[in-house]
Predict the structure.
Amino acid sequence: MQRRDFIKGTAGLGLAGLPVAAAQAADYPEISWRMASSFPKSLDTIYMAAEQMAERVAALTGGRFHIRVFAGGELVPGLMVLDAVQDGTVECGHSASYYYVGKNMAFAFDCAVPFGMNARQQNAWMYSGGGIELMRELFRSYHIIQFPGGNTGAQMGGWFRHEVHSLADLKGLKMRIPGLGGKIMARLGVVPQTLPGSDIYPALETGAIDAAEWVGPYDDERLGFHKIAKHYYYPGWWEGGPQLSFMVNLSKWNALPKIYQQAFEVAAAEVNVRMLAEYDARNPPALMRLIQQGVQLHAFPKDVMLTARRESYALFEEESARNPIFKRIYDQWKVFLQSELQWFKVCESPYDNFMDYVK
Ligand code: CA
């Protein structure tokens, strides 16, 4: 038996994810890839995920499969990572698929849609509910294969200079909120703005905008919004569990030795778990620090939540009528989400609420 045949044979025994042993390593080529991240290095949780990914892939392949990570803007603009992977400018990228809803709104299901899944449900849909397969149909038409690559958990609803008592207070409000969340906010009377992270603080400070959303306590604290806008709202209903993704050019993927593909997939899955863990560990102390500095927490008023939810699902129905792949994904996604919500309502939510209630 040839050594390669032996390795192929072990895949069926579940051994394919093992690191390349020194004796075998000589059989495998040295490969160097470039990964374009959409994110700046200052976002240590989100950006570092790509570095963690590269380190793990190298470790699993005896250092033979090397991925060099570039921050947003270094090789390609942060919002053009998908384009760069599609045309082969880079072999792979790390991005948020909802940046690409201008190409097809269905990309949002690979990250987050308003009033969509939380992080647990997103993982359930992706890994075990048919989500990856459905999303790969869309990505294939862009010559890309994608892998879940991190999740921030439910995001906060953002920073407001003045309190929002009801839906009426949103009319004419200028808020930094990009993507589908911005589209829904516009239906509620908000004037949405798309600004990169570095431009939000000065815009809030000069009063050019009245409100801004970013991520959550840990990332928001670093950008300093609490020094200007004291009212911090929850939840970020447009991002209940946004997933990031690793995107790989399909030709480059198909040319990889199978064991390198396994290393990539295993490392991506690890990063997907690890990022959520980091956010869940870092957000609570960051929130405490913000509150100690005078930040006031508020829930969005009920009429805001209910109207935003109604408008979100109206938008999905409108898009389904004109976009066949959106409809195909949405129809399956919606049924899966409803089923998840029933289960979470019976067991997970009551448990969480009880744990919070009993001091
Ligand atoms: Ca956000």
Observations:
- Confidence is low (pLDDT under 50) at residues 1-17.
- The radius of gyration is 21 Å.
- The CA atoms of residues 175 and 332 lie 32 Å apart.
- The longest helix spans residues 258-292.
